[in-house]
Amino acid sequence: MQSKQTQTQTQGNQDQNFHWSFSPDGHYNEAYDKLGLPRAHWEYLLDSINALGSSGLQDRYQKASRILRDDGATYNLISDPLGKNTWELDPIPMLISSDEWSLIEQGLIERAELLNLVLKDIYGPQELIRQGIIPPEIIYSHPGFLRQCKGITMPGEHSLILHATDMTRGPDGNMIIIGDRTQAPSGAGYALENRTVLSRVIPSLFRDSQVHRLALFFQSLRATLSSLSPTPGDDPQIVILSPGAYSETYFEHTHLSNYLGYPLVQGSDLTVRDGHVWLKSLNGLRKVDVILRRVDDIYCDPVELKSDSYLGIPGLVEVVRAGNVVVSNPLGSGILETPALLKFLPAISQHFFGHNLKLPSVDTWWCGDPQDMLYIKDNIDSLIIKPAMRQAKSPSIHGHTLSESDKKNVLARIEKAPYNFVAQSYISPSYIPAWQEQQLKTRPSIFRTFTVATESTYAVMSGGLTRVGLSGQDSFVSNQVGSQSKDTWILASEPEKQLSLVEDRSIAQESNLPSRVVENLFWLGRYAERAESTIRLIRTVFMQLNSIDPLPEASKKLLLQALSKQTNCLPGFTGSPALLNQDQELINLILDTQRPDSIKSCLLSVLTCSEEVKEMLSADTHRIVNDLRDNLYDLERAYVGGMPSAPEETLDPLVTTLLALSGLSHESMLRGIGWKFQEIGRRVERSLQTSRLIQSLLTPELAQTDQPQMLEAVLLSVEALITFRRRYRTYNDIAHGLELLMLDETNPRSVFFQIKRLQAHFEELPQAVSPQKPGLNPAQKAIIKSLNGIQLADLDNLAKVDSQSKKRIALDNLLNEVRAQVEEFSTLLSEQYFDHSAGPQQLAETQEIISI
Amino acid sequence: MIYKIRHITEYKYHSPVSLCYNQAHLLPRDTLEQNCAPSNVVITPKPNYMAQHSDYFGNHYVYFSLQKPHTKLVIDVTTEINSQNERAAFALELGISCKAAREMLMYNQDPDTIQAKEYILDSPMIRPNTALKAYAEALFQDDIPLLSAARALTTKIFNDFKYDPSSTTVATPLDEVLQRKSGVCQDFAHIAIGCLRALGYPARYVSGYLETLPPPGQEKLVGADASHAWFAIYSPGEGWFEFDPTNDDIPKEQHITTAWGRDYSDVTPLKGVIFDGGNSHQLSVSVDVRRLEQ
């Protein structure tokens, strides 16, 4: 069983021919026959790989990794915005000949038809149980059997819409199915991404190999989902329901949303009213017809299913029951994933079809059967024990790895609830050439297929997702424990005509954007701007502190205090200086995530928001977001040993990246609603930050000689110093500074400019002006007030210091007003456009009052 | 006997509830021994959506939702029921033995017997264990008729457990009830079901009402009745038989069935989800079981 790997490829010689034809004993090799000769359908690919050589393959591998990263293709294992695992793609595809594929395809269609009948029976008459074909315990004790869904039917012939199988090739070369995915099968989107990337990385090889296209599968999926709509005729509203950005397959949800043209929503984006499901969009509620579900069924409705779920839509099951919305796969379909069912599939197939299935499943014993249990006890060394319910937290147990006492414990655990366990025979998976660690290796592989219901039958994706292990040991190959993926090529006997969804797909209408999405874009804008202005200020502080002209104490104090105020980290430098280590506090303002608006906190919020709206961002934006993640990582390392020399330089890359982010949204984002909200977020934040900065640094009186330096600091940190010098060569007084910083309509960093832009963007939003209430909206009023306040202000008066308070009182008052008005605008905007419903809570259960 | 049953549930919330979705298992079902006229359901304020369905177990329930802010919700259900006076008396001593019942459950291919095995398995609120098994094991000797054993278990629970509404809530785990030896009717039904399942017999939970009669010479008070619960055991080939451990009795015409399921959680009188409403509310329930004619 252990791999006795023979690897004859020598390192260092790049252009030699590869020979990696040997796989461990007892395993089938995908590419080579027993004599070590290439299999016919692999010849062309193997020749081409030889021609590429090591450096060529490594080059293709890196290129693929880059594209995947730019596309934001991730598979998340942990909920950490910095911990994205890029999807791993091997540049060498898995190949299946067209003759073999047609047999597999027929087998998969037959299997899907059978599981469909099982699903209908379990939630219908239960004849399979009543006639003794399936033991009742398998269904009745399974938490995925949702009694609430009994009697719910799907329109059309099929209840099972999407079906995925995992299969591997046994030692004799025949494909064996090791599991079914019927809950919310994942992987089709990754298969699509793999294909897109690989066809770019090895274009001519792909073209010449006559590979079956994947687009047909997705066309069938779209046609089927449309046909499920309870209101046929119209253009149905179809949405993809995702658990959210921290779901491990979230990339796939965003990818499918874009490819299929359906809005990506989370449970809280939907609401049940008047017996229908509605999308809370910017333009109000839009009726939803079909939900493509990527949330496990028991989480879908806290009213009738898991009561503490926050991922679902309260009331959904009843809408489904009433036939007013269709969920695919239907609620309750997860029961088909139980591995215990595999044992009974032959008998079920006999019952429904009168013959056996074309594609065999792995040999399975059910611990609830006393006969099977005897077998398991005697043969545990060669078996894999699995829970009959698929759960992430209960992995399979490999019998041969157990000590004698472990075996006893495992058997004792089984005896407690035997019907909750199965045993499966171990299949030696086939091995396949794989590019890993810059070498060709031979690795175990499993293959996932995808099937979708059509009007009268099922359509199988001509391809799929192959995953290979990262070591020569073949016990585990799955994404949960880290593995590499391969594109899978079904080789056509003749060229196929090009098909893609891109041309005919309807772009999801912008007005149907969920409120959550625009809210995240708004905050993306705000956090990006907040991060940028804080970085600029702290950079200025570093420069001033380390300047050759020593900073006067009063100015220094003012600058540090401004920093504490700007980052909301009070008291900080406004408190007693004795209590504070200056360097440490500065580092904390950069990196401490416990500080509300430290640079790192702001940037993490940027990353989180961008993850939430991933499907709205372009590939270039993904690249910049990735850069931001890298910059942040570098930044942390720069401060590992305390304050570095020239600390301001550590911040430069971040400023550049943030500028690229805002530049890109300007240059390449459609001027739609999403863009406007992002812009509004930026402008709100910049007006607030600039006002606060002026207030902290320019309202207190300083010595005549120190004032110019402080003005320069402010101008520097809002990037207006050069303009100022050019324009007012000889003046460096406050009044001129304030003119540029506050009033100048042409300075894109002036406060007036920000608010003017806010006014323009706001008026273009849907329903900014209500036909029922003519006149100005309260948010508009707040803006106009602040515009007027700034315009009517007298510069000399603003610059004048009040002799009693030693402050520029008029300036202070004006800035207080402006800040309050912008805050008010922001609040009114969010009340009008964002969703504020609190989460659901359970009605306390009725306490029984008892009669005696 | 014809009964008229009125069951009023009233919620008062601390602050307005903006949205709610509810499921009410308050509509009595037809059984072999009782026939129900359609229930009259009045919900105030008027729901935006309301529907009646049958659930997995064949019980009737009302589903309703409200989307106007409200601080008070009243569900008022009235049903007329004809409960048969004459019931086929079953002889406890006849019928199959415990051993025969277990063997039939194991080997019998009768579809109804196979399906009844659902009620041997764990359910959300009842997970049989060795303590429950030990409590009842001695009563279920191989050659004892199954139904006499179930009757004996009913008496044993009645004798051993103290009726005390303050000792438990709907959330008290079964183990704790068994240790404390006190609780209310639903606890006693759960204990009996847990024992039977631990021993391998199918058992289910029955919710309903029990008519109470005032002391002689006194007028019956309106709203003084209450909902009630008991259990049923499945005897292979013979069907379901009901027992009431709270009253050490076999249910008769005064026991009116609302619904049954694996345990209380399948037939919770009212459950649902609310939005807003603050953190506190007041609940009051009034039940009235009234004889219309003999």
Topology:
The complex is a heterodimer of chains A (852) and B (294).
Chain A: H1 43-70, E1 89-96, H2 98-122, H3 127-130, H4 136-140, E2 162-169, E3 175-181, H5 188-201, H6 203-208, H7 215-228, E4 238-241, H8 250-260, E5 264-265, E6 270-273, E7 276-281, E8 284-288, E9 290-293, H9 316-321, E10 326-328, H10 340-353, E11 364-366, H11 370-379, E12 383-387, E13 397-398, H12 404-416, E14 421-425, E15 431-436, E16 439-453, E17 458-460, E18 465-468, E19 484-490, H13 515-545, H14 553-566, H15 582-591, H16 599-612, H17 619-638, H18 648-668, H19 673-698, H20 707-717, H21 721-727, H22 734-743, H23 751-763, H24 778-792, H25 795-799, H26 809-833, E20 840-842
Helix pairs in contact in A: 1-5, 5-8, 13-14, 13-16, 13-18, 13-19, 13-20, 14-19, 16-17, 17-18, 19-20, 19-23, 19-26, 23-24, 24-26
Chain B: E1 2-27, E2 34-36, E3 40-44, E4 49-54, E5 60-66, E6 70-83, H1 98-107, H2 111-116, H3 130-136, H4 146-160, E7 162-163, H5 174-180, E8 182-183, H6 185-198, E9 203-210, E10 227-235, E11 239-243, E12 255-261, E13 270-276, E14 281-293
Parallel strand pairs in B: 7-8
Antiparallel strand pairs in B: 1-5, 1-6, 1-13, 1-14, 2-6, 3-6, 4-5, 9-10, 9-12, 10-11
Q: Can you walk through the features of this model?
A:
The complex is a heterodimer of chains A (852) and B (294). By secondary structure, chain A is an alpha+beta fold. Among the domains of chain A are: 514-668, no CATH class; 670-838, no CATH class. Chain A has 26 helices and 20 strands. In chain A, strands 1, 2, 3, 15, 16, 17, 18 and 19 form an 8-stranded mixed beta sheet that branches. In chain A, β9, α9 and β10 (326-328) form a beta-alpha-beta unit. The radius of gyration of chain B is 20 Å and the shape is globular. In chain B, the strands form 3 sheets. In chain B, strands 1, 2, 3, 4, 5, 6, 13 and 14 form an 8-stranded antiparallel beta sheet that branches. In chain B, α3 crosses α6 (185-198). β20 (840-842) of chain A pairs antiparallel with β13 of chain B.
